[in-house]
Write a structure and sequence with these properties.
Residues 13-175 form the N-acetyltransferase domain. It comes from Pseudomonas quebecensis. Belongs to the acetyltransferase family. RimJ subfamily. It holds the Pfam family Acetyltransf_3. The chain has a domain at 8-131: Aminopeptidase, CATH 3.40.630.30. The chain has helices at residues 23-30, 48-65, 110-124, 140-148, 177-183; strands at 8-9, 13-16, 67-74, 80-89, 94-101, 130-136, 152-163, 166-176. The protein has an eight-stranded mixed beta sheet with strand order 1-2-3-4-5-6-8-7, with helices on both faces. The longest helix has 18 residues, at 48-65. The chain starts with 7 loop residues before the first strand and ends with a helix. By secondary structure, it is α+β, with helices and mostly antiparallel strands. It contains five helices and eight strands, in the order E-E-H-H-E-E-E-H-E-H-E-E-H.
Length: 184
C-alpha cells in the first residue's frame, strides 16, 4: 500500500486530500444539518481548530492507521461538498466506508458516486477482500446509498452504538470482491 493519499476522480467529483485553506469551508459544512447526528465520531460543534487538525492529520492518519479520508470536490467549480473515507484493515483485507455530504448537495447522487469510487479503489488498488459500512437504523438516506453502490444488507446490530446518550441500532452492509467484480 502506498503511503500517499490517492487522488481519485469520477464523472462529477474530484476526491483528494484537503488543503489548509479549506478549513473554514470544512467547518461550515460539518456544522450543517444532520452531519454530526448521523456520524459515529464527528464532534458537534465542529470547530475551526477541529477542521484544521483534521486536514493537517489526513496524511499521517493514512500512514499510521489506514484511515483514508478525502475531500469531495465538484468538478465543475472545485467546491468542497463533503468527505468520504475508507478505514483499511490490512490484516483482514477489509475496508469500512464512511462519509457525509453537505445538506445543500444531498439527493444528487454525490455520496454514492464518491463511495463507489473509493470502494473500487479499495478492491483494485488495495486488493481488499471485503468492503462494508454501517449506519444508524434511522438514517434511511445512508442505507439507500449503501444499497445503491452494491453493498448487501447483512443485519441489524441492536443497541450497538451509544450516541448522545441513546443506544442506537446499527444496520450493517457489505460486499465481497467477487460480488463486486460480478457487478462491474
Amino acid at each position: 500500500m502506498s503511503n500517499q493519499l490517492p487522488h481519485l476522480s469520477t464523472p462529477r467529483l474530484l476526491l483528494r486530500v484537503l488543503k489548509p485553506h479549506q478549513a473554514e469551508r470544512l467547518c461550515e459544512l460539518a456544522n450543517g444539518p444532520n452531519i454530526a447526528e448521523n456520524t459515529a465520531s464527528m464532534p458537534s460543534p465542529y470547530t475551526l481548530q477541529t477542521a484544521q487538525e483534521f486536514i493537517e492529520g489526513m496524511q499521517e492518519k493514512f500512514r499510521a492507521t489506514g484511515l483514508l479520508s478525502l475531500g469531495m470536490h465538484r468538478r465543475d467549480d472545485d467546491g468542497l461538498i463533503g468527505v468520504v473515507s475508507l478505514r483499511i484493515n490490512t490484516a483482514h483485507g477489509y475496508g469500512h466506508l464512511g462519509g457525509w455530504v453537505a445538506a445543500s448537495e444531498r439527493n444528487q447522487g454525490f455520496a454514492a458516486e464518491a463511495a463507489s469510487a473509493l470502494m473500487a479503489y479499495g478492491f483494485e488498488a488495495l486488493g481488499l477482500h471485503r468492503v462494508g459500512s454501517q449506519c444508524f437504523s434511522r438514517n434511511k438516506e445512508s442505507a439507500r446509498v449503501m444499497e445503491n453502490i452494491g453493498l448487501c444488507y447483512e443485519g441489524c446490530l441492536r443497541g450497538a452504538f451509544l450516541k448522545n446518550g441513546v443506544h442506537e441500532d446499527m444496520l450493517v452492509f457489505a460486499t465481497l470482491r467477487a460480488d463486486w467484480e460480478a457487478r462491474v
